[in-house]
Amino acid sequence: MLLKVENLNHCYYKYKLLKKFPVQILKNINFSVYHNEMVGLIGLSGSGKSTIAKIVAQLIKPNMPQSLLRSHLQEAHTNKTLHNLEPIIESNQHKQAQYPDSKESSFVKNSMQHKILFNNQEIKLKSQHDKREFYKQVQILFQDSISSLNPRLTILENLQEPLQNLLQITHKETQLQKIRLLFDELKLPHRILYQYPSMISGGQAQRICIARCLLIAPSFIILDETTSNLDYLMQQEIMQIFTTMKHEKKCTFLFITHNINLAKQFCDRILLMQNGSIIEEAHLDKDQRGKKLFQSDLGQELESCCNTEV
């Protein structure tokens, strides 16, 4: 098992006048990703897919305020008061000593604690060394590839940054040689190395971001709506690159998309999200790729819409 997410909850705040209100967008998320597989994560816009990507990539930290915990407790224990449970919420260190066997203690503990394991170790980025080692193995590709590139740097300089900062390859000629080899592999013209991101097409920008990933040679890549802004032919071309990486370089992928047809074509498993929760999981094999996968109403509705569009 490469990645394991346990009991992940997250909220953001809405602001109204002088007050802020927590809104939960991830609710008790649990899933695993195994070595050398591509797992699809699909759902409607706003279901929490990209938030999961950013949390797994350690770009944001999970946030679950006490007010939402109290709300959960109230729903779960409607016949009990919250007064006796406040010490548990406010003092997480003493909750088991105070209420060692209570259901409330277990509920609060589960709500407050989450785990994200990578290679069977909990992710803890406490130092620059930890961050460097983590991002050598884990990379994320976003939907807006041009915005992912530094507009003030040339394409070459954008690609040199990870080589220098993560792999600590400082020799310019060695950097250039590795980059040119990758450009040949991805069928990118060498002349754009000296151009700026604003001067290239969206398809070229996406390939450059892929090249930046390949330069680092990570074991796990998160694709956050990476193909959404591309036409059908470009989507197929980009996904074939990822499939080749999966087979030849043994990469593992979490593919976040709203395109069920693309997920069914390339993924080994698909997780379906709705309103911040994973509601269904579908396993794919060669015999199932053209068949209905989901039992839930949302899954069947999404499949029907995609089949109509084809």
Helix and strand topology:
Elements: E1 3-16, E2 19-33, E3 38-43, H1 49-56, H2 66-76, H3 86-90, H4 95-98, H5 103-112, E4 115-118, E5 121-122, H6 128-137, E6 138-141, H7 155-165, H8 172-185, H9 202-216, E7 220-224, H10 232-248, E8 252-257, H11 260-266, E9 269-274, E10 277-283, H12 297-309
Parallel strand pairs: 3-8, 3-9, 6-7, 7-8
Antiparallel strand pairs: 1-2, 1-4, 4-5, 9-10
Walk me through what this model shows:
The protein is of the alpha/beta class and 310 residues long. The protein has twelve helices and ten strands. About 6% of the residues have low confidence.
State the helicity in percent bands: 40-55%
Structural domain tally? 2
Q: Please give the count of helices.
A: 12
**Can you tell me the residue ranges where pLDDT is under 50 for at least 5 consecutive residues?**
79-97
Distance between the termini: 35 Å
Mean pLDDT: 84
What CATH architecture of the largest domain do you see?
A: 3-Layer(aba) Sandwich
What overall form do the CA principal axes indicate? globular
* Biggest sheet strand line-up: 6-7-8-3-9-10
Query: Biggest β-sheet, characterized?
Result: 6 strands, mixed
What class do helices, strands and sheet pairing give?
alpha/beta
Strand content: 15-25%
The first-level CATH class of the largest domain is given as: Alpha Beta
Helix and strand pattern: EEEHHHHHEEHEHHHEHEHEEH
**How is the CATH topology of the largest domain named?**
Rossmann fold
Strands, total number: 10
CATH superfamily caption of the largest domain: P-loop containing nucleotide triphosphate hydrolases
